[in-house]
Amino acid sequence: MARNLQHVIEEVVASGFSGVQVRVNDEHGEWVGSAGVSKLGEPGKPSTDGHFRIGSNTKTFVATVVLQLVAEGAVGLDAPVDDYLPGYGLDREITVRRLLQHTTGLFNFTGEYYADGTVAAGIPWQGQEYVDGLTHGYTDEQLVRLALSKPVRSAPGTEWSYANTNYVLAKLMIERISGRSLAEEMERRILGPLGLTGTVVPGSSPEIPEPHAHGYYRYEVDGEWKLVDVTRMNPSWVSAGGDMISTTKDLHVFISALVGGKLIPAELLEEMFTPYPEIGYGLGVFVQKTDCGGTVITHNGGFFGWAALMYSSPDGRTTMTASLTTGDAELDFAETAAAFQNAQQRLVHEAFCEV
Q1: Which tens digits make up the pLDDT trace of 93-125?
Q2: CATH number of the domain that residue 101 is part of
Q3: 171 near 185, Cβ under 8 Å?
Q4: Is the pLDDT of residue 42 over 80?
Q5: Which of 3, 30, 46, 188 is most deeply packed, by most CB within 10 A?
Q6: Model confidence over 138-195: pLDDT tens digits?
Q7: CA distances from 121 to 84, 109, 112, 327 (A)
């Protein structure tokens, strides 16, 4: 396994990423490896214990906290979110389940892409406008109000549509019910009990703990390509939709504990892992088939500079967690997305099929 995985991650770097770190745990033990560089212009490889921005893997953590509140009777899974967040005028058909499942139909505050090719802009998230706003802070209230000011994409429960808005509302619901910040609840319920000392809920802080690799954003302005180090940024623009920081070890411990039933009761775990038809999204996780016919529980995450992978077999015995950073490769947005998709497929195949 070690030789093949190392070869795969070296090829992933060659496809356009500046650095990769991977951790695989299975019946044979643990394998960790890295390839590429931690920082452009310097020779050192990414640390296999390095911190990274996990993007939408954050959603799995948030969904877990919400389901813990459901287990305690503080929240009804099929109750209207309006019961817990009055004042936003939310459609009463928007339930907690639909919030976690992305079937609310609410506008995604980071922008909407429609089947006919049209785009509805949200907050700036690419180009010079994005770079200029890397230090800008947003409140959760601003993000939600922006989303609610836009036309809904569909009626609640009628269509699956991925929206960061849903998880910012979930954060606000957690905070209102618990009387504590999401960071405090996350520490109390997940990070502390599992010993996830490398995992951070950063809020608006641009800092990332050492050691860490650097992520870069390459973009075009007036025909000229520019490269910016986006390692330090204010992540409040995505909030609970994807702001957390972690390590491959912590993600392994978390997803293993989750699928192993250590965080939420079995009946709610079954609800979490019941996918929306054809889409494969449950409550804060994807349930997917591998190319060798197996099943994996997963959520990945990424934005400019960073990508994170978190996969587990349904029994938690095999996990694969990884971080990828982008560098100065001459790839546009679509090419970068395609390279990520290919890297993801290769790593999953190696970890879950080549046993």
Answers
A1: 999 999 999 999 999 999 988 878 788 889 987
A2: 3.40.710.10
A3: no
A4: yes
A5: 46
A6: 999 999 999 999 999 999 999 999 999 999 999 999 999 999 999 999 999 999 999 9
A7: 29, 8, 7, 26
Q: Alpha-carbon distance 339 to 150, whole Å?
A: 32
> What is the signed CA dihedral for 168, 170, 172, 177, rounded to 10 degrees?
-170
CB-CB neighbours of 98 under 10 Å: 24
Report the distance separating Cα 320 and Cα 251, nearest Å.
Answer: 9
Q: Is 265:73 a contact under the CB 8 Å cutoff?
A: no
% of residues, the chain, pLDDT over 70: 99
Which residues touch 65 (CB under 8 Å, ≥6 apart)?
Answer: 174, 182, 185, 186, 189, 190
Instruction: Give Cα separations from 74 to 29, 79, 178 (angstroms).
Output: 39, 11, 9
Query: Could you give the number of structural domains in the chain?
Result: 1
Q: Token digits for 78?
A: 């099929």
pLDDT tens for 301-351 read 988 899 999 999 999 999 999 999 999 987 777 788 888 888 899 999 999
Total length of the chain: 355
Catalytic positions, please?
56
DSSP string, 116-179: TS-EE--S--SHHHHHHTTT----HHHHHHHHHTSPPSS-TTS-----HHHHHHHHHHHHHHHS
Question: What residue numbers bound the domain in which 27 lies?
Answer: 2-352
